[in-house]
UniProtKB/TrEMBL annotation:
Residues bound to spermidine: 62, 86, 155-158
Domain PABS: 2-235
Subunit note: Homodimer or homotetramer.
Stated family: Belongs to the spermidine/spermine synthase family.
Name of this protein: Polyamine aminopropyltransferase
Gene (UniProt): speE
Source organism: Desulfotruncus arcticus DSM 17038
Length: 276
């Protein structure tokens, strides 16, 4: 008997993949957590039956979310990551040797534990001595830590369940308050095909908070529509003004200094979403 994993990407679109083995299935305080060994994607993490990451294409998302912002800020010493319990973003952040402290706030301990057991390629950064893992609500954390961070990254699930608050006006204002006077935010902001209203709303909200707001693109085959957006909200530094010839080689598979500016080049259909 064949076993398949199916995600309802929208009410009318599904993606399925053949499963060789169910490696883990459990219910945390917040969500259903599952790990599958698949033929096409290798090990795959799903939360509430939605693909979060997999061994095959994870590096595209994690490198995009982290390196664009960290290479835009000229001196990031203290960094906050909200979400991303799989560890892929932490793995990329620790490549930046100038960073002195990385605070990782993840609401679900089960996701961290599963990552350590089943995704060692992603969770390797957890052992870096600069990393402090806090199991707590990221929304509460930014409310309680004002003027603290140089860079904040939001590695959030889709805007359902416990992640809904990570896309709201109040949250982004609290993020701005938790940043230092020249700090910047990078957030994943969903599919430019299937989440157009959300992207327009988030972009408009950020423009009311940050002087510099830029959306950029990645390509993540297992996410709805393939194209994926990330948004920079910065108090001072513009990612388009980075001197890319001075950026370090970070041993990446997707992001490179040569493409730093090009990811901000949006096709007309996506420029409409951010009114560029």
């Amino acid at each position: 008997m064949e076993l398949w994993f199916t995600e309802d990407q929208t009410r009318d679109v599904r993606i399925s993949c053949r499963v060789k083995k169910v490696l883990f299935s459990g219910r945390s305080q917040f969500q259903e957590v599952a790990v599958y060994d698949t033929d096409e994607y290798g090990r795959l993490l799903a939360l509430d039956n939605i693909i979060q990451t997999n061994i095959w294409d994870e590096f595209i998302y994690h490198e995009s979310l982290t390196h664009v912002g960290l290479n835009t800020h000229p001196n990031p010493k203290k960094v906050l990551l909200i979400g991303g319990g799989d560890g892929g973003s932490v793995r990329e952040i620790v490549k930046h040797k100038e960073i002195e402290k990385i605070v990782h706030v993840e609401i679900d301990q089960m996701v961290i534990d599963v990552a350590k057991e089943f995704f060692p390629e992603l969770s390797s950064g957890f052992s870096d001595p600069r990393v402090e893992i806090i199991v707590d609500d990221g929304i509460k954390h930014v409310q309680e830590n004002k003027n603290t961070y140089d860079v904040i990254m939001v590695d959030s699930p889709d805007p359902i369940g416990p992640a809904v608050g990570l896309y709201g006006d109040e949250f982004y204002r609290n993020v701005a308050g938790a940043l230092k006077e020249d700090g910047l935010l990078v957030a994943q902001t969903e599919s430019p095909f299937f989440n157009r209203d959300l992207i327009s709303r988030v972009n408009a909200t950020m423009k009311n908070i940050f002087p510099v707001v830029r959306m950029f693109l990645g390509i993540v085959p297992t996410y709805p529509g393939g194209a994926w957006t990330f948004t920079v909200g910065s108090k001072k530094y513009d990612p388009l003004e980075v001197e890319t010839d001075k950026l370090p080689d970070l041993n990446t598979k997707w992001y490179s200094p040569q493409m730093h500016r090009s990811v901000f080049t949006l096709p007309p259909i996506f420029r409409e979403l951010v009114k560029e």
